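Before surveying the methods themselves, it helps to consider a single example record, giving the amino acid sequence and backbone structure tokens:
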Amino acid sequence: MTQACYHCSQAAEKALKALLLALDQEPERTDSIERLLGALELLGIETAPLRLLPLKPLQRMTTASRNPDGDEAPVDLFDQRDGALALAVARAVVGFVDQQLGGLDGPPGSRTA
């Protein structure tokens, strides 16, 4: 389940980075979903729907699966409930990005900042 949680957090992160790239912005080298949302907000993207999601647990899933702390094996860090939450949040983030991409005019590089 830990790998599923990790991949869900990665899907959300990569989707936000893809949106930044589509807006002709180089995304920061970060794993922080919060920082990526901040970068989108600076570009005028309304991220309020995403701010309502439980993003912090998703972020912890990235950190904990990459850098486990304590004696617990990484495979035991998350359970089925965590996986369901991670999947729901990742789907919402990817869906949000998909909507945003659908509203853009032209291919990347054709817009002016």
The radius of gyration is 15 Å.
